[in-house]
């Protein structure tokens, strides 16, 4: 015979086990935990009494040794008074004679009494024995009351816990299942499919039954849909991650993690717009690291990158939370100081400058110190557009670098030096357009022997001018500083080298019996550029030129600024056969000290000394000294800026080798050289 349980709802199925286990737990606590707890409490109380009694006997030892029975009596009597649960306290001596109390009292005996005995000893001798009877009735009553309270509280808590669990299960399990079962009936012809377990007669069984009605309608779609959903989800996740990564890299520098130039421009534009609405004031710092190139050249770009990362960490800790630090270029940083007065901006700039100055970078046993040139521009409602603000800050930074580096230059309206630099910036598009349109023109000026009796080949210096769009000639002094400042000099040098060497080929073909030495100017930028060096060597070999007819002129200041690179550059072309001349010699502070380290063939005495030697004895003495030292070192000497016959005669008197200047011949278009326009008559 099969016994069948009555059909029970899910609510009752959940509640019944909870009630059963609650009753079981309460019974276990009543008959197991509470008796153990009572026994434990009594044991602890006995330990405390024995400990206390032991302390009392130790205190009685000196009194008994001195036979101070009155004090013993007082102490024991006080203990009985102070401890209400102590019902009987008897002291007997070693002969079992009762010392306290003086008369015998009835011993208390009941199930709640506790008897303790403690011998009084001294140096192994028994002085007496102390008998204590304690009535624990109060403690037992308190424990019984706590037991009853515990049972009531436990029953109450279990009841509340059961009710809470039932409520939670009602809300979390039964009701959702019930509602889902109802919803399943409504979508029995819908789009879901699932393999269902065995059905039961409760809400879950009803849900299973409802879902089983619809599983046949969409089983064939489920697997395909799952694959497609997973595929789309994966694609969406990848697109989201790519978007996040692209968004970050679009606004941040990959090396330092700082915001990049584009994001810095956006924030600066926002600050500029804010000044127009709330009249707020801000500031921008443009930082250019000094001596950073030394680290790159000495230890490589990996070391340079690590320096930038370390320095970034230092600088971020020196600005305010609302300020923006950005990497604008290789070793250039920008700082946008939001809501910052000019004096406060100067203080922050000085903190950053000192931080960089104090920073020491170690790499492979090398320790480097660097500095920073900082341009500071205040931003207010009268400030110009973004381009001009950045341009002004960059120019202010350049002035700081020109004035000795590792300093701050604050832009001030009407500053003549800054206006000059801004004027140089206006040359950038002009120079670029002239290069594109091939609107540069080569000129030449003879370099002739001061003493005509010397047999020296004809010699010219090739000079450069720009032709404006309206055909006017622009001297090099007008645009060369801008080309050097804004990284256009390499392109200008390459134009000059290519066109000059092409003309030398043309001249050699036309005048094979009239050899000529050609001097070509190179900027300091080219001395550090392997590309320019390789191109020169390639052109000389391709055009089959005689290298010993080509002399490259480099300025003293450029050579000293790039001494190591200059020596390497010169030696490479010297080995090929080319000559070198050191231009503007004497303009540097340590000209003679550097001269012995530069493998040049001739020195050109700075024209600022030559042009006044007929008027100024100091200039004459300086030119004479340079000439003598040059000859001692086996170098030819060339005097430029020879503007009259008296200067020429003085140069002849002190035995200068060559002369060049307006008195001999003004710069002439290079194309006219083939027509014989080479004047040496004024020297004879």
Automatic annotation (TrEMBL):
The chain crosses the membrane at residues 149-173. Residues 171-223 form the HAMP domain. Keywords: Membrane, Transmembrane, Transmembrane helix. SMART domains: EAL (SM00052), GGDEF (SM00267), HAMP (SM00304). Residues 280-413 form the GGDEF domain. The keyword Transmembrane applies. PROSITE patterns: EAL, GGDEF, HAMP. CDD domains: EAL (cd01948), GGDEF (cd01949), HAMP (cd06225). NCBIfam families: GGDEF. This is Diguanylate cyclase/phosphodiesterase (GGDEF & EAL domains) with PAS/PAC sensor(S).
